[in-house]
Write a structure and sequence with these properties.
Order of helices and strands: EHEHHHEHEHEEEHEH
Structural class: alpha/beta
Number of helices: 8
Bound molecules: adenosine monophosphate
Shape: globular
CATH architecture: 3-Layer(aba) Sandwich
Number of strands: 8
Strand content: 15-25%
Number of domains: 1
CATH class: Alpha Beta
Strand order of the largest sheet: 2-3-1-4-8
CATH topology: Rossmann fold
């Protein structure tokens, strides 16, 4: 069973690496950020509520987020494992997750602030399938168009510099203490995610989780 969490600051590459690793184990990649963006696009009640918090660079309330994840993890495709990306982000979320299921590994992607600013500044994402590209590090074949599904690529509102700074402060304040929680359980592996070559980071992750 591979019940994994990918933790790291924004721009650490959680989404990018989770996408590669999920294919290797044939387990779903569950990104709460993507789920919220989907709900916002579809204008569901959850989306309308989440949007108020996300647009300001704030976290969506725990209760709402935990319910969303609990429902997702109860589905059949999570039986052999999953990769959680962007959840848990607070201690109450981690404690709630503990009651839902057992986490076997936490991959902590470590990255410095200058690398974060460089990566997020150029990040573009597909509106349709959520695939992530980068204007210079990982450009699409055709500018503004997703290689995978042909959808439109855009810069997320929360990737603007003011929002990035706020999100990083929130990460330090609320998410970093989660590491203590998981270190005590002895399930954390540390991966240096500053390496500009994605395949090297993937190799390191695989070595540490297998
Ligand atoms: P992400 O794509 O993971 O950076 O998430 C984008 C935004 O969605 C975050 O800045 C939060 O506002 C919200 N969000 C995603 N995951 C969570 C979570 N676990 N708890 C609270 N808010 C979240």
């Amino acid at each position: 069973m591979k019940n994994m969490i990918f933790i790291g600051a924004q721009g650490a590459g959680k989404g990018t690496y989770a996408d590669v690793i999920k294919a290797k184990f044939d387990i779903p990649h569950i990104s709460t950020g993507d789920m919220f963006r989907e709900a916002i696009k579809d204008e569901t009640p959850l989306g309308v509520e989440a949007k108020k918090h996300i647009d300001g660079g704030n976290l969506v309330p725990d209760e709402l987020t935990i319910k969303l994840v609990e429902e997702r993890l109860s589905r059949d495709d999570c039986k052999e494992g999953f990769i959680l990306d962007g959840f848990p982000r607070t201690l109450p979320q981690a404690q709630a997750l503990d009651k839902i299921t057992e986490i076997t590994q936490v991959v902590f992607l470590e990255v410095t602030e200058d690398v974060i600013m460089q990566r997020l500044g150029g990040r573009i994402q597909c509106r349709k399938c959520s695939k992530i590209f980068h204007k210079t590090n990982m450009p699409p074949k055709v500018e503004g168009v997703c290689d995978v599904c042909g959808g439109e690529l855009y810069t997320r509102d929360d990737d603007r510099p003011e929002a990035i700074k706020k999100r990083l402060a929130i990460f330090q304040e609320q998410t970093a203490p989660l590491m203590d929680f998981y270190e005590k359980k002895g399930v954390v592996v540390h991966v240096d995610s500053n390496d500009p070559i994605p395949s090297e980071v993937v190799k390191d992750i695989m070595k540490k989780i297998e």
